[in-house]
Specification:
The protein is α+β, with helices and mostly antiparallel strands and 361 residues long. The chain has one domain: Double-stranded beta-helix. The chain has helices at 21-24, 31-46, 64-70, 72-78, 95-106, 173-183, 185-193, 201-205, 232-241, 248-261, 326-333, 343-351, and strands at residues 26-28, 82-86, 111-112, 123-125, 144-147, 153-160, 164-165, 168-172, 219-222, 225-228, 268-270, 277-281, 285-289, 292-293, 303-310. The longest helix has 16 residues, at 31-46.
Length: 361
């Protein structure tokens, strides 16, 4: 790791008002591509009710679409850092079949990563806070502050939109860092050194630890490549806990990086349609969501499916920026149940009075 070279000037260093995402990052699936995906789904289902770890290029065979997906890591690395796949006929497929398609597509891009103490390989981004009050932010409603996740590429498939609102909001973390370097170099120095992080209590109890052992840098540079990591929610949990007291300057740095990345000068909003799949380069972009009006009944609520993907062809994340280690994921994975990420199974478990996480009256 070397000292950061400013200004950062890459294809992924942009400001929202300068970008037309429908020009720079939209791929509408063609009829032949859709037919290929449908044939892969039918082949997969002919093999029986396979669990998610068994959905891979061999069981979900694609041809030309495979080339598109295998080239996605380079596109996200060398382009704007995002891509929206559009055109899957949502009304043709059940929730479960949409999920099979999504996982099959993702298997061509990278390796799926366990996301939480639930052991989930595929996260359900839906408001279940009335069922699981201790859940992480992706399982709660309303707007979400800007942050990055703990993976190389994050994928989001939209099963159901909100009544209104709920747009995906993204910014270039590198552009935000340039701005802070120019306007508040003292804060940028804090973010380069890093902040302490804290997991949610449920995640921490089932992993190696709850707090990071050391401060985790929000930006590094290795061999000319910039790697950002903005787990702002985890930093806020550490700050609020009082167990890892932040200095006044550290608190200000955390506040400002969240504020600037969510400002109109930097963010880009991408609206979901049902069936859309968004992929983001998590090493250079920061994301959140706008507030939204949701349905009351669980089966009608805004519902996205989340993949965390590791890309073998990318250089490894710097050790000091890894919060969820391989051992943490191994410990979490012990709690996974077969097929548990399937929407029909997920909802059944959630509504089961015997579910240990269910805390609704």
């Amino acid at each position: 790791m070397t000292a950061i070279n400013y200004p950062i000037a890459t294809s992924t260093t942009w400001k929202g008002p300068e970008v037309d995402w429908m020009t720079d990052g939209l791929h509408v699936l063609s009829s032949p591509e859709l037919a290929e995906i449908d044939a892969a789904l039918q082949h997969l289902k002919s093999l029986g009710d396979l669990d998610f770890p068994d959905i891979n290029p061999a069981t979900f065979p694609l041809d030309k679409v495979a080339g598109l997906l295998r080239g996605l890591p380079d596109f996200l690395r060398n382009g704007r850092g995002f891509l929206m796949l559009r055109g899957l006929p949502r009304d043709r497929y059940s929730d479960d079949d949409m999920t099979r398609i999504y996982f099959g597509l993702g298997s061509y891009i990278g390796t799926t990563m366990t996301q939480s103490y639930l052991g989930d390989l595929l996260g359900h981004v839906i408001d279940v806070s009335d069922y699981e009050p201790k859940s992480r932010g992706y399982r709660k409603g309303g707007g979400q502050l800007m942050h990055t996740d703990s993976c190389d590429i994050i994928g989001l498939m939209c099963l159901r939109t909100a009544i209104s609102g709920g747009k995906s909001r993204i910014s270039s973390a590198l552009a935000v860092f340039n701005h802070l370097h120019d306007t508040r170099p003292d804060l940028m120095a804090v973010l380069e050194e890093g902040l302490f992080l804290k997991r949610t209590d449920e995640d921490g109890r089932r992993a190696t630890r709850t707090y990071s052992e050391n401060k985790v840098p929000f930006l590094t540079e290795i061999d000319g490549e910039y790697v950002s990591y903005l787990p702002t929610g985890y930093a806020r949990l550490a700050e609020k806990s009082g167990e890892r007291p932040f200095t006044e300057l550290e608190s200000e740095a955390l506040y400002q990086v969240r504020k600037i990345s969510a400002s109109p000068d930097f963010y880009l909003d991408m609206g979901f349609k049902e069936g859309d799949i968004q992929f983001l380069n998590n090493r250079v972009l920061v994301h959140g969501r706008t507030d939204y009006q949701d349905a009351k009944l669980l089966p009608d609520r805004r519902h996205l499916l989340r993949l965390w993907l590791a890309v073998d062809s990318w250089s490894p994340m710097p050790d000091q920026q890894i919060f969820h280690t391989e051992e943490d994921r191994r410990l979490w994975s012990q709690y996974r149940k077969p097929h548990s990420e399937m929407p029909s199974v997920h909802d059944k478990i959630l509504l089961d009075p015997a579910n240990p996480h269910r805390m609704v009256d």
